Amino acid sequence: MKPRKTKDLKSLAIEELNQLLIDTQETVVKQSFQHSLKQLHDTAYLKILRQDIARMQTIVNERKS
Prior knowledge:
By secondary structure, the chain is mainly α. It contains three helices and no strands. It has one domain (10-64): Helix Hairpins, CATH 1.10.287. Helices cover 75% and strands 0% of the residues.
């Protein structure tokens, strides 16, 4: 999976962005669990998801201020 582009995230409404953030966080939890059970084949996917979460949180914080 490729990382999400910042310009694509900035084009989303705040509600959509918050929902996407929640969904991505849930995915990280599930993938981390699979990783701990040695069932995850692409471990780089976890890094991409964490970076996407950071991007989304940054955009949400920029819009709040």
